[in-house]
Amino acid sequence: MPGTDLPDVRSATDVPADAPAYDVVVVGFGIAGGCAALESARAGARVLLLERAAVHGGTSALSGGHFYLGGGTAVQVATGHDDPVEEMVRYLTITSKEPEPDKIRAYCEGSVEHFGWLESLGFEFERSYYPEKAVIQPGTEGLMFTGNEKVWPYLDQARPAPRGHKVPVPGDTDGTKMVMDLLRDQVEQAGVEVRYETGASHLVADESGRVVGVEWRSFDTSGVVRASSVVLAAGGFVMNPDMVSAYTPALGSKLFTLGSTYDDGLGIRLGASVGGELKHMDEPFITAPFYPPSVLVKGLVVNKLGQRFVAEDSYHARTSYHVMRQPDAAAYLIVDSAHLEEQRMSLCPLIDGWETVEEMEAGLSLPAGSLVATLARYNDHAARGEDPDFHKHPDWLAPQDQGPWGAYDLTLGNALYAGFTLGGLRVTVDGQVQREDGSVVAGLYAAGACASNLAQDGAGYCSGTQLGEGSFFGRRAGRHAAAVSPGTR
Ligand SMILES: Cc1cc2nc3c(=O)[nH]c(=O)nc-3n(C[C@H](O)[C@H](O)[C@H](O)COP(=O)(O)OP(=O)(O)OC[C@H]3O[C@@H](n4cnc5c(N)ncnc54)[C@H](O)[C@@H]3O)c2cc1C
Question: Residue 293, preceding bond cis, omega within 30 degrees?
Answer without folding.
Answer: yes
